[in-house]
């Protein structure tokens, strides 16, 4: 249920509304507007009538939220959610570029990649240290050693780091290092993990599951939002279809659909969506043209020898070219790539 307060409501009236919501066993979540406030009452709503809320002082309107996802819905929060990551904002007019290798493999590999992508205009550095590999015999990631290298890359380039978390047991360690938690496609419905991330106040990049519907993605985001963590970025990364020419099929529709349904930022991962370096730039361009708020792209200095996802990784020069094209598309869309204004503090 959404309760819209009258313009110039008083703090006491808002408190009254919050109290009645709690008396009904529901949890209030307040979104403050310029003159008004919207209070979402979420939980198991079994209230036959909205009357007890409509008669409260300071209340303008009361409506049921028709969608199953509540806090992520535009009904509850009509404006785009815009929030800061270190050095830039996501969800506003600026388009953000997250780039880096699939996995951190060595100190020299991540430092070289970090400097190259920063130079080309990236806003944040990605790199997995716990890798969700299909085979248990494949490279699983460097763990804490990889986090230390990422921290050094952040120190040198000023870029915040985006790292995948696979399990609750990794939380305490990762909290010390990461700026944005990535939840991978395979963990999109790991509800315990999502709840735990909802208790943190770090941004979460939530990827769409391999065969998940848009609504399921939004319901997963809801687990994080319900814990009070409002900084969720959704990521379309391709879905499984009957097509075998590419690793996945980019659901480009998902971008405008998500932008309609939710106020959360939506980004595209053209690397996993296509699985081949030849298709990454065209699909990145398409994503921005479709209204994505950013892209996350795999870049490797030596893709032929990458420990994972070499086939879909761009060499730094190709990445730089792609950024220029994305910039041009962004301008057509009346947007721009988030400026890089943090100085590089040390050379490599
Ligand atoms: C990744 O980002 O390297 C990754 C494993 O992505 P996804 O979860 O989308 O497969
Ligand atoms: Mn990968």
Describe the sheet with the most strands: 9 strands, parallel
Can you tell me the residue ranges where pLDDT is under 50 for at least 5 consecutive residues?
none
Helix content: 25-40%
Determine the structural class based on helices, strands and strand pairing: alpha/beta
SS summary, helix count? 11
Strand content: 15-25%
Bound molecules: phosphoenolpyruvate, manganese (II) ion
One letter per element, helices H and strands E, the order comes to EHEEHEEEEHEHEHEHEHEHEHHEHE
CATH class of the largest domain: Alpha Beta
C-alpha termini separation = 54 Å
Mean pLDDT: 95
CATH T-level fold name of the largest domain: TIM Barrel
Shape-level CATH architecture of the largest domain: Alpha-Beta Barrel
CATH superfamily of the largest domain: Aldolase class I
- Number of structural units classed as domains: 2
Strands, total number = 15
* Principal-axis shape: elongated
Provide the gyration radius in Å. Answer: 21 Å
Give the SSE layout.
Blueprint (H helix, E strand, L loop, with lengths): L1 E4 L5 H13 L3 E6 L4 E6 L8 H4 L4 E5 L19 E3 L2 E3 L3 E7 L6 H14 L3 E3 L17 H14 L3 E4 L6 H5 L4 E4 L7 H9 L3 E5 L6 H13 L5 E5 L17 H8 L4 E3 L1 H5 L2 H13 L4 E5 L17 H17 L3 E2 L11
Parallel strand pairs: 7-8, 7-14, 7-15, 8-9, 9-10, 10-11, 11-12, 12-13
Antiparallel strand pairs: 1-3, 1-4, 2-3, 5-6
Helix pairs in contact: 3-4, 3-11, 6-7, 10-11
The structure holds phosphoenolpyruvate (PEP) and manganese (II) ion.
Manganese (II) ion (MN) binds next to loops.
